[in-house]
UniProtKB/TrEMBL annotation:
Key words, A-Z: Hydrolase
Protein family (similarity comment): Belongs to the 'GDXG' lipolytic enzyme family.
GO molecular function list: hydrolase activity
Any coiled-coil regions, as ranges: none
Keyword hit for Ion transport: no
Alpha/beta hydrolase fold-3 domain sequence ranges: 83-290
Identification of the protein by name: Alpha/beta hydrolase fold-3 domain-containing protein
Alphabetical list of SUPFAM superfamilies matching this protein: alpha/beta-Hydrolases
Pfam families: Abhydrolase_3
């Protein structure tokens, strides 16, 4: 077993192995998606997320791709700060439901409205469908801010893993398109290049749970079946021209994650391009730890860091978990 993971992570790895859970590339698409939903439901039952003022499912409308979204309101504020959230899952698995607890915690702790985007996924809808839906949903939020009771001047983007890839790509697209204005981007262990090739991919690509380099290849083959698309900056944001007015970024990384090195490199690439970047690394953590609320102390710390970063960006006090 790994000797560099935190004891709380080791406990999760042990329980995962004992339960006979398998990586998605071994299960296949249908069973892999079902396992992700089942694990998320069990996680919510073991550690119930906070109750919010309102949770509503709706769609963005025909003019904005008719994308399903879920709106989480923490208050009756007439113009609340807003986070557009993109779930992870390799652009292939997971859903609004698998990340419902993360969205609830984010809305509660940051005191904001969260709008989680149910973008189209591969292989049914390969690249660039997810990118198109994510940008359309973000435009919808900005252009319907008054009806949504959110402040378009305090619009942030957030995602984990593949969702973080979408968050930073949408930020770049918004800059290139002249809007909407993005106040901040929160990138939790982002996928930057599915092809890997980094030292962390070699070091942590196997033996650290059900996410590794084989999983990344499986996701890539579904999301980016055309090899030429893997160089497109909308799939690999490190290939984008990052110069210009991009929003400040918080980049969260996990030590024992195949994606660690590419996320660190991207944070430095943003910084070199003049973007204000906060990088927060978590020792002994694996990919996915951000969702281990109630199980891993570092997950609580990471969520608190996100709330603090957003509060700093929005210039308002932040809450703490449980308040």
């Amino acid at each position: 077993m790994p000797d560099d993971v935190h004891p709380q992570i080791q406990d999760i790895l042990d329980r995962t192995a004992a339960a006979g859970l398998k990586p998605v590339e071994e299960l296949g698409l249908t069973a892999g998606r079902a396992q992700a939903e089942q694990l998320a439901a069990a996680r919510k039952e073991a550690s119930p997320p906070p109750q919010l003022l309102e949770v509503q499912d709706t769609r963005t409308g025909i003019g904005f791709g008719n994308v399903p979204v879920r709106i989480y309101r923490a208050s009756n504020e007439a113009a609340a700060p807003v986070v557009v959230f993109f779930h992870g899952g390799g652009h292939v698995i997971c859903s609004l439901d698998t990340h419902d607890d993360i969205a609830r915690h984010l809305a509660h702790q940051a005191g904001c409205t969260v709008i989680s985007v149910d973008y189209r996924m591969a292989p049914e809808h390969p690249f660039p469908a997810a990118v198109e839906d994510s940008f359309a949903a973000t435009r919808w939020v900005a252009e319907n801010a008054e009806a949504l009771r959110v402040d378009p001047a305090r619009l942030a983007l957030c995602g984990d893993s593949a969702g973080a890839n979408l968050a930073t790509v949408v930020a770049i697209m918004a800059r290139r398109s002249g809007g909407p204005a993005i106040a901040a981007q929160v990138l939790v262990y982002p996928v930057i290049d599915y092809r890997g090739g980094t030292a962390s991919a070699a070091r942590y690509g196997t033996g650290y749970g059900n996410f590794g380099t084989a999983t990344l290849r499986w996701f890539m083959d579904h999301y980016l079946p055309d090899p030429a698309s893997r160089d497109d900056w909308r799939a690999c944001p490190a290939n984008a021209d990052l110069a210009g007015d991009l929003p400040p970024a918080l980049v969260i990384t996990a030590q024992c994650d195949p994606l660690h090195d590419e996320a660190v490199a991207y944070a430095e690439q943003l910084r070199t391009a003049g973007v204000a970047v906060d990088h927060l690394g978590f020792e002994g953590m694996i990919h996915g730890f951000f969702g281990f609320l109630g199980l891993v102390d570092a997950a609580e710390e990471a969520h608190a860091a996100v709330a603090a970063f957003l509060s700093k960006t929005w210039n308002r006090p932040n809450r703490t978990i449980g308040s």
